[in-house]
Amino acid sequence: MAWFRRRKDSGGAPGHRGANRADLEHLEEFVRSRRGVEAFIEPRTTVTETTVLLIAHDGEWTRRRIDSPEGARRFAHRLAIPIYDVALVGYPQRMRDFNERRKKAAGGAV
């Protein structure tokens, strides 16, 4: 029996998926269509891969998988936006304020 057979794949954990073209296009469109966008690298966890969080001047945000922290830095550099490590600086207040406004607009149910 092959109970302990090793899988030959991309080397990632089961379910591993880095950024694909659709992810990058979504992020690029977010940057192009909003002002004051900053990027935040969110580290890999046991549940999710490395992600990049983009936050606009008004707190609106989006998040997508990215291949690596270095890939996130290259992405931000290419689009000339600032990038921060969320583990070092935390989430900006404007994002929390945006989430609170959205929650109130939805009637308080989340």
Describe this protein with a few key phrases:
single chain, globular, 4 helices, 4 strands, alpha+beta, four-stranded mixed beta sheet, 110 residues
Detailed description of the structure:
This protein is of the alpha+beta class and 110 residues long. Helix content is 37%, strand content 16%. Strands 3-2-1-4 form a four-stranded mixed sheet. It contains four helices and four strands, in the order αβββαβαα. The protein starts with 20 loop residues before the first helix and ends in a 5-residue tail after the last helix. It is globular and about 35 Å long. A hairpin with an 8-residue loop joins β1 and β2 (51-55). The chain has one domain. The protein has helices spanning 21-33, 69-79, 86-89, 93-105, and strands at residues 38-42, 51-55, 61-65, 83-85.
Which value, in Å, is the CA radius of gyration? 17 Å
Oligomer: single chain
Mean pLDDT rating:
87
The total of beta strands comes to: 4
How much of the sequence is in beta strands? 15-25%
The rough form would be described as globular
Structural class: alpha+beta
Strand order of the largest sheet: 3-2-1-4
Major β-sheet annotation: 4 strands, mixed
Helix content: 25-40%
- Number of separate domains: 1
Listing every helix as H and every strand as E from the N terminus to the C terminus, the arrangement reads HEEEHEHH
Low-confidence stretches: 7-14
Note the gap between the termini. 48 Å
Supply the number of helical segments.
4
